[in-house]
Specification:
Layout lengths: L1 E7 L5 H13 L4 E6 L7 H9 L5 E4 L9 H13 L3 E4 L8 E2 L3 H34 L14 H9 L4 H8 L3 H8 L12
Parallel strand pairs: 1-2, 1-3, 3-4
Antiparallel strand pairs: 4-5
Helix pairs in contact: 5-6, 6-7
Amino acid sequence: MLVGYARTSTAEQEAGLHAQERDLKAAGCEKLFSEQVSSIGERSQLSAALEFVREGDTFVITKLDRLARSTSHLLSLVELLDGKQVGLRILDFGGGSSVDTKSPTGRLMLTMIGAMAQFEREIMLQRQREGIAAAAAAGKYKGRKPTARAKLPEVVALRAEGLGSSEIARRLNIGRASVYRMLHPKAVPIADQKR
């Protein structure tokens, strides 16, 4: 059985998700798992798909970046699939070619391309850090606007109602540590206290 997995990072990428699903169906996938979540987020549909596949199945994705966030992550997923005797097929492996890990050549290509993709990402992040440092030195970079701090009035109001930090954080969808910092700005974090 061909089992497809589609993923986009955000809900705004609806068209991209539909395109992946279309391509997976066209490739003959009988079962599809899809989700809209960051590659570093909790990917429940990926977990469900990996649980679903059985010996002899082929796990199909449209592109490598829809599945793994690093070469080591990719190789661990391939190892998990190998353990279940499930192949991995990538429909678009660059230049319109596809790769199937059921062949030794396919496995070699997958490892090499995975390493190159990770290398590209690391170079891009390095350039980004250098650009931010240059902008900061020129006084043009201020950093991102604090998101939790904008909810200070709501935090204070909920505290006045008698709610604890955890409940306030849950209701406002912000971190508990952010709530604590807003309510106790002069407190020294436990990690910074001397023993």
